[in-house]
Task: structure prediction
Amino acid sequence: MSDEDKMTIDERRKYLLMVRKRYLKADKVNRGILLDEMEAITGLHRKSLVRLMASDLKRKPRRRHRGRHYGTEVDDALRVISESSDHICAERLQPNLEWIAKHLSRHGELVLSEQLLAQLNQISVSTVKRILSRIQQDKPRLPRRKPAWGNALTRDVPMRQIAWNEPQPGHFEVDLVHHSGPSTSGQYLHSLQMIDVATGWSERVATLGRSYQVMEDAFRRALTRLPFPVLEIHPDNGSEFFNAHLLRFFHDEAKVVELSRSRPHHKNDNRFVEQKNSTLIREPLGYERLDTVAQTLAVNQLYDLMWLYYNFFQPVMRVSEKIIVPSNGHRSRVKRRYDNARTPLDRLCETEAISQAQKEHLLALRDRVNPRLLRQSIYDQIEHVFSLPNSAQGVAEDIYQTLGQPINIPKGEDAWVTLLFDPITNPR
Result:
């Protein structure tokens, strides 16, 4: 409907008055027909028409505009007072108008009469707000410093999402899961998890606390076990990830090609690792408090077993296509299509991220492992973790006992072997 075809307010009122008589006498079906007609002719929403039909359709008289009670003298005074107060809001300014006006008068900035002082004393907050909005067009303010950075080390680290269809292995989303139980007081266990976007390969390490020593040791342990190079580390904005010691480790020792981070308060930027936090950490360990050296070592032994089981024997699905499906009158939805489920190891072997010798080594390792026995070992280790007592009150745990622990992949009759390559010291 063009603007020329639209009804005026008076025309619409006359039309609704004529239809209203029929509407009130009609049954439910005919009322619906009349509403359809009124909606098409007037352009009003159906619910608005229902409300109008229930009213008398009389126009309310306009309120008489009150003339100005305060003259230009008050405007000029408020301009000086507001400027002297650095243009603070009316709610802060109005209760202090009297003493500020007297103070400025003593300094020769304001000519203050008894009438003006009386008006400033009785003026309301809303009136001050209206006057200020009228007289303050381009108000110069004192210079404001930019807000300080929460962590200056993140200034040069770009914020982004790793693409959902990233084809190259080595782009890891990283997160830290707390095992504090109902209370966050004291020292407790954390789980560092790394998820490769391209293959679904997962790494987990337990730490006691989150100081730079234990975080560096955790990354060193994860990278030592990782069979392919790291191209990108993508955590959130936590200070446990962005500190001088850990950044030095990423650049100098781990040789990480790129560091990136999530946007603050955008959890979906780390969507892949957030999904795995539930299935690979919370499901086996729950939300119980773990806070001792013994528990940390036991959880790391559990994660060593899970490393084999979930990377070698648990198929994962990956989104292969996203289709935006438009919807009339509603938000468009995204339809996702998934590829055939394959294990992270199989996905890794399809790429060029590792050599043929490394592929053969990993496949030979999988061939030697009994997945049923491995699964039972995982369940037994979970029971062992929760059989260990928590720390006694007032007794401090020595975090250094958790550092530099070897990777414990069981060996025996099944010939489970430890990986033979070190991603930090040995080039691939």
